[in-house]
Amino acid sequence: MASYCMTVTRLRLVLGEGARRLHVSAAFNAKAKVAMSRFEPGTSISYEKLHENIDIVRKRLNRPLTLSEKIVYGHLDDPVGQDIARGRTYLRLRPDRVAMQDATAQMAMLQFISSGLPKVAVPSTIHCDHLIEAQIGGVEDLKRAKDVNQEVYNFLATAGAKYGVGFWKPGSGIIHQILLENYAYPGVLLIGTDSHTPNGGGLGSICIGVGGADAVDVMAGIPWELKCPNVIGVKLTGSLSGWTSPKDVILKVAGILTVKGGTGAIVEYHGPGVDSISCTGMATICNMGAEIGATTSVFPYNHRMKTYLNKTGRADIATLADEHKDDLVPDKGCKYDQVIEINLSELKPHINGPFTPDLAHPVSEIGAVAEKNGWPLEVKVGQYQHQQSHGLIGSCTNSSYEDMGRAASLAKQALDKGLKCKAAFTVTPGSEQIRATIERDGFSKILRDVGGVVLANACGPCIGQWDRKDVKKGEKNTIVTSYNRNFTSRNDANPATHAFVTSPEIVTALAIAGTLKFDPETDYLTAANGEKFKLEPPNGDELPARDFDPGQDTYQHPPAESGSIMVDVSPTSTRLQLLEPFDKWNGKDLEDLQVLIKVKGKCTTDHISAAGPWLKFRGHLDNISNNMLIGAINIENDAVNKIKNRLTGEYGGVPDVARHYKANGLSWVVVGDDNYGEGSSREHAALEPRHLGGRVILVKSFARIHETNLKKQGMLPLTFADPTDYDKIRPDDKISITGLATFAPGKPLKGVVKHGDGSQDIIILNHTFNENQVEWFHAGSALNRMKELQ
């Protein structure tokens, strides 16, 4: 195995990066093992094991399987004995690998260190993409980030080296683009500590976003639990053309299913229309599937994926996938729990927002809708700018070579007519490979010439890492992005910013026009000479005609010998903090929990644990806890971060009141609405309540990842059996949770709601704990339980 990979490596070194395109496997034994990635020659892809498990399960269930089921059930720890029922049973799975971005990797690695294990049990990587703030431009911003975050980067690099984790340095690119280029492949089961990990579904992978504690389980070699997902089928017919892009598929699906319509399900795309979409376009669709609450999304293996694998130096994997294609597509006659059909030939360009990614509008209608609702339309240029507009392309959702090429084709048309963007315009390359290639092929120059600023290969404004200077907080303005998420305040911490998500092509067109009230399919622009003209539909190559330029080498291999490597965490650090175990359950019911806050309306993980400037504290639980629920709306006064301290009678910030309760021995509960915790996978939104004395989160319904994260940290995520019981809770109530002595799967708990006037309400509370998860609660956390079992 090693000599085979070394020979391939020597070929590449001798012949240069162009050797990536060689079909080298023809020169070797056809049965030679194929490595999971070029960085891990000691690993191998086992399609045989996948096939064996699929065969066992298919015979047991006696029915055709969807692609999602093939890959998921193909990774069962016990395919013979596992109870399998969609939407009901918990599966014990063996993922192939783990990926972590730097903001979540800090806590994941701190938890892994706490486990006491010497090395990770599966291939794992850390990707530095979240801590680079967009200020001036790519080179300057990266240099500043390396300086500001030196302590964190050093911790992640040394922890990776010590425990066998690959480390992608700052400037490498966004985790999901790196995974697509190097680690995703048809049939792999990958978990990542970021909610947009499903991006890999564009390469026929099942890639699922999780919290750091889930990643620790897999890195520790423990079977990973997932509630058996339902499968939503999206049948695509027709073909994409003109202004319509892959992004419009998921914008349309989001409008149909809403932000919670995919909860508990994998979205599986199929049908004749699939072949009209590029591999990176399929990745875009899967990436934004996170915004409908889906467990993940996936496309069947096809020639577009094979072409991408060949172009990214993985012809050996493509050949192997061809040999096992029957296991990488759905069975004929398989059944979906729900089916949506979209004719790509009839699909029009869409733009979604503001403030939620499921508010879908055809681009042709957004101008009129915006006028009707009073949303800012125009870019006002000059000394008195009251409604500054921004167009931002890139991010993990839309930063492929094809995306950048299509955007550049529009920018070139504008330049040829003497025009530049009327709106501020930023470009975020998805990876160092994309940056280097679009620089070489002239796209970056065109985008800069039209008025764009090329930012670092990082998340940047998409996650709130944006030092925006042109508007004051509270100033109403519009931004249009090719990102995936547009919650209130997410991009720039300004609640008055109206953020819309759309394709890079539409972002570019609107930035040139300077107004939302522009439909590029029908409307005209005015050239510098006064001539009226229409933009021609965008065009761009799916992949570069020449090979990708890999750019700078930004990967750190874990060394073979790591015993002498030290991982230091200073006790005086404000950025990093070693973890202390949470307390075990005391064996009693939870009596008289004070309602800390009754949350009104949408409460995402951005509301619970804001990103942006708070990202710097992601490795320090006590400091990051100072942002707990500061974005949530208090139903008592419609204010954010202003709640009444029931012990003092004074108003204070949510974290401050929680700390005061904890110091006085008063445990508390949060009451919330529907789809609580939607959005990011950040487990800090679960760690912080636990750290500050919370015991229960009681809501109408949960988003999948957040509910699991709460269980992992020893919290009780509970739902109202009758959602109208939410209305019975008053902001000054105390709630007792009874029945914990017989806490068991499928058995509801009881809530005794004690009102300030002495009256009470008895309510039934549901939960989704299984037997293992009940043990997490008893032990105080999943990590505590892991230590008990060692």
TrEMBL record:
<feature type="domain" description="Aconitase/3-isopropylmalate dehydratase large subunit alpha/beta/alpha">
    <location>
        <begin position="69"/>
        <end position="514"/>
    </location>
</feature>
<comment type="similarity">
    <text>Belongs to the aconitase/IPM isomerase family.</text>
</comment>
<dbReference type="GO" id="GO:0005739">
    <property type="term" value="C:mitochondrion"/>
</dbReference>
<keyword id="KW-0456">Lyase</keyword>
<dbReference type="Pfam" id="PF00694">
    <property type="entry name" value="Aconitase_C"/>
</dbReference>
<comment type="pathway">
    <text>Carbohydrate metabolism; tricarboxylic acid cycle; isocitrate from oxaloacetate: step 2/2.</text>
</comment>
<dbReference type="GO" id="GO:0003994">
    <property type="term" value="F:aconitate hydratase activity"/>
</dbReference>
<dbReference type="GO" id="GO:0006099">
    <property type="term" value="P:tricarboxylic acid cycle"/>
</dbReference>
<dbReference type="InterPro" id="IPR000573">
    <property type="entry name" value="AconitaseA/IPMdHydase_ssu_swvl"/>
</dbReference>
<keyword id="KW-0479">Metal-binding</keyword>
<keyword id="KW-0809">Transit peptide</keyword>
<feature type="domain" description="Aconitase A/isopropylmalate dehydratase small subunit swivel">
    <location>
        <begin position="594"/>
        <end position="722"/>
    </location>
</feature>
<dbReference type="InterPro" id="IPR015931">
    <property type="entry name" value="Acnase/IPM_dHydase_lsu_aba_1/3"/>
</dbReference>
<protein>
    <recommendedName>
        <fullName>Aconitate hydratase, mitochondrial</fullName>
        <ecNumber>4.2.1.3</ecNumber>
    </recommendedName>
</protein>
<keyword id="KW-0816">Tricarboxylic acid cycle</keyword>
<dbReference type="InterPro" id="IPR050926">
    <property type="entry name" value="Aconitase/IPM_isomerase"/>
</dbReference>
<dbReference type="GO" id="GO:0051539">
    <property type="term" value="F:4 iron, 4 sulfur cluster binding"/>
</dbReference>
<comment type="function">
    <text>Catalyzes the isomerization of citrate to isocitrate via cis-aconitate.</text>
</comment>
<dbReference type="InterPro" id="IPR006248">
    <property type="entry name" value="Aconitase_mito-like"/>
</dbReference>
<keyword id="KW-0004">4Fe-4S</keyword>
<dbReference type="Pfam" id="PF00330">
    <property type="entry name" value="Aconitase"/>
</dbReference>
<dbReference type="InterPro" id="IPR015932">
    <property type="entry name" value="Aconitase_dom2"/>
</dbReference>
<keyword id="KW-0411">Iron-sulfur</keyword>
<keyword id="KW-0408">Iron</keyword>
<dbReference type="InterPro" id="IPR001030">
    <property type="entry name" value="Acoase/IPM_deHydtase_lsu_aba"/>
</dbReference>
<dbReference type="GO" id="GO:0046872">
    <property type="term" value="F:metal ion binding"/>
</dbReference>
<dbReference type="InterPro" id="IPR015928">
    <property type="entry name" value="Aconitase/3IPM_dehydase_swvl"/>
</dbReference>
<keyword id="KW-0496">Mitochondrion</keyword>
<dbReference type="InterPro" id="IPR018136">
    <property type="entry name" value="Aconitase_4Fe-4S_BS"/>
</dbReference>
<dbReference type="InterPro" id="IPR036008">
    <property type="entry name" value="Aconitase_4Fe-4S_dom"/>
</dbReference>
<dbReference type="GO" id="GO:0005829">
    <property type="term" value="C:cytosol"/>
</dbReference>
